[in-house]
Amino acid sequence: MAAASTPLPLTITVLAQESIAPKWVMEDGTAQGLCPDLMAAIERIEPRVRFAGYQQARSLLVIEDALETGRAGAAAAWRCGSRCRCTK
Question: What 3-state class would DSSP assign to 35?
Fold first, then answer.
């Protein structure tokens, strides 16, 4: 019988968006607010999932570009911007 393998952790790159408190609040280089709290809760529930890359706030245009080019896997508290295809 083959030994059960342990699933590898999944790291998701998330970019914090500038100026949207209380969702993202940057204090002393640390991301705080609703979005970091939600990601921490997800990591507690599913320990194989890790979020990274959100310790520095970015503009919406940078986040949109990172999502389109694959440099980011997710965005939290994303507001619709010029590239949005939603129906608002």
Answer: helix
